[in-house]
Amino acid sequence: METVIRGASIYFILLVILRLSGRRTVAQMTPFDLVLLLVVSETTQQALLGDDFSITNAVVLMIVLFGIDIGLSYFKQWAPGAARYMDGAPTVLISDGKVDFRAFHRARVSLDDVLTAARQNQGLERLDQIKYAVLEADGAVSIIPIA
Amino acid sequence: MERPQIRSDGLQLNEHRQFQERFWKFERVAWIAFAVVTVSALLGLTGGGGPLATVSIESADALISYPRVARWETADELQIALQPRAGATERRVMLAPEFAKSFQLEDVQPRPSKSTVSDLGQILVFDNPDTQGGQITMHIRAQSVGRRSFTITIDGGMPNALTTYVLP
């Protein structure tokens, strides 16, 4: 019983903290984010397992975590409103060539981030070559160039 | 399945901007909560050390320091500084039954010369030949979560009421 409670509690606590910390910490990984991820994974490992290092505990825990994940995927299909809270929604940063500075500021994305994505994904050189830039729900920046 | 609308600028996606504006505000409130939790942890209000992590109560028999906030299944210390007592060659520390229900007593320094149990609780007897008081350290581990109250009685005097909040 304790394994199930530990697994479910840590899963949901981590989900809430990651979601509230903003999406930048998930997809756009800087060296600081990598350090954060390593430390968080080590911390949660202790809380998940406690002092029980048996294979039974590990197997039960894995099944609980995958089970919650599968259950939540069905729940998100059934309740799209709740899915927005859990996964977030895309944010249009540049619309038809116009930069939405408020969206940049609130989503904590810089023009450098967008230009980096434009160079990496589309081989673009300048901001004025970008028609649309969208900060996707997974934290990646999609670029659509001016045709 | 919801089909995203085509926006006036030609993009086909559901941005849900009002939801995002609300969520961005909520995010910032959450960051304040993160800061509050961090400051509370530095102060010791989440257990694990800090200026407010322990509390002391003083009576005629002893000064007892114990965790104000403890963590479930985590080692902590309860210290009893016995006041000198003329003519007493042994000192008795009685832990109420509520203590045993909530905490595991892992170790006691120094070791008691005798340990007995009654319906009033567990009595630890310490030899104290020089009658000058002394320091007793109990290494305890919380076994249940929530507000835990118990009493410690020294030499059959007035019970000292202690309350510890055990976090999960």
From TrEMBL, chain A:
Residues 83-144 form the YetF C-terminal domain. The keyword Transmembrane applies. This is DUF421 domain-containing protein. Pfam families: DUF421, YetF_N. GO terms for cellular component: plasma membrane. The keyword Oxidoreductase does not apply. The chain crosses the membrane at residues 55-75. It is found in: Cell membrane. Gene3D superfamilies: bsu07140 like domains. Keywords: Cell membrane, Membrane, Transmembrane, Transmembrane helix. It comes from Endobacterium cereale. InterPro entries: DUF421, UPF0702_alpha/beta_dom_sf, YetF_N.
TrEMBL record, chain B:
This is Uncharacterized protein. Keywords: Membrane, Transmembrane, Transmembrane helix. The keyword Transmembrane helix applies. The chain crosses the membrane at residues 29-49.
